[in-house]
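1st attempt posting a full record on here, be nice pls
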Amino acid sequence: MGLFGRSSAPSRPAEPDDDDSLDHQGMALELIDGWTGHDDTRLAQLPDTELAAQVQARQVLYDYVDRIWEDASRTCRRVEA
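the predicted structure (as C-alpha cells):
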C-alpha cells in the first residue's frame, strides 16, 4: 500500500451508474489503484527529508479535500431537509 494509498486489491473498471452519470468516485479509485505502484517506487527512492515533505504535503491535500467533502455533505443535507 502506498503513502495515503489503498490496498493492493485488484481494481474494478469504472462504469457509469445506471442513470448514465459518471461514477467519479469509482474513477478516482481506479486511478489511485493504477498509480500506487509507480508512486511507491518513486517514494522509496526519496531521501528522508524529501519523504517527510511528501508526507506533509499529502496530509495538507488530504485535509483540504476532506473539508471540501464535508462542506458538500452539509450543503446536501440542508437541501434535503
